[in-house]
Design brief:
23% of the residues lie in helices and 26% in strands. By secondary structure, it is α+β, with helices and mostly antiparallel strands. The protein has one domain: CNF1/YfiH-like putative cysteine hydrolases (4-Layer Sandwich).
């Protein structure tokens, strides 16, 4: 259920895999995405199971309506209702104990925390969002609340790797013009994009030094959802919260 979990100075990072839930094909088992065609009751049950496995109150987890942009929502509590959830690709909080969640199925989930200032963020960085600067926008929002980039701990979760994310040559050139570190080549020698490498390069330039990335490629791993592999599939979640 929880494929990766780590705690650093009171900041907690967790990424799910696809197992341990109650869903059926093609979303088996632990689909946490509410906008992919799965039964809403199943998604709700899976979100409850995942939260409780982390010791979290499911009602204290903040979700986003992700749209592949760069908008950031600053929050101090859960949304009152589903209709209040904004369209955003990053969420930031200064409230300790409030868990922030990001959904992915090949895009790069980015979890950020300044444990000293008590500021946390979760961001959804697909190819469009990485180009648009969603991660720098999240770091700026954290800084406005008192975070220091040099203290930020950054973790990126399972995502499609640069060896597998094949794109047309023109698209690779467009991405690399914005973020050269994202320029990649597939294992079979065709143009590719490495979104996670792009994210880490952006974080490096912002002064975020404590960075680690998951070794898991979602396209290669049968234990993780992959939109590029399966099209109709579930969503993984990354969670960040501070004591």
């Amino acid at each position: 259920m929880i494929g990766q979990r780590e705690s650093v100075s009171g900041a907690h990072f967790a990424f799910t895999d696809r197992w341990g839930g109650v869903g059926a094909a093609p979303y088996e088992e632990l689909n946490l995405g509410g906008a992919v065609g799965d039964d809403p009751e199943v998604v709700g049950t899976n979100r409850e199971l995942a939260a409780k496995s982390l010791g979290l109150d499911p009602a204290q987890v903040v979700w986003m309506n992700q749209v592949h942009g760069a908008d950031v929502a600053v929050v101090d509590g859960p949304w009152g209702s589903a209709s209040e959830i904004p369209s955003a690709d990053a969420v930031v909080t200064a409230r300790r104990g409030l868990a922030l969640a990001v959904l992915t199925a090949d895009c790069t989930p980015v979890l950020l925390a300044d444990p000293v200032a008590g500021i946390a963020a979760a961001a959804h960085a697909g190819r469009p969002g990485m180009i648009a600067g969603v991660v720098p926008a999240a770091v700026r929002a954290m800084a406005e609340l008192g975070a220091e980039p040099s203290r930020i701990v950054a973790r990126t979760g399972p995502a499609v790797c640069g060896r597998c994310y094949e794109v047309p040559d023109a698209m690779r050139a467009e991405v690399a013009a914005v973020e050269p570190a994202a320029h990649a080549e597939t294992g079979w020698g065709t143009p590719a994009v490495d979104v996670t490498a792009g994210v880490h390069a952006q974080l490096e330039r912002l002064g975020v030094r404590d960075r680690e990335q998951s070794p898991v490629c979602t396209l290669e791993s049968g234990d993780h959802f992959s939109y590029r592999r399966e099209r109709t599939t579930g969503r993984l979640a990354g969670y960040i919260w501070l004591d």
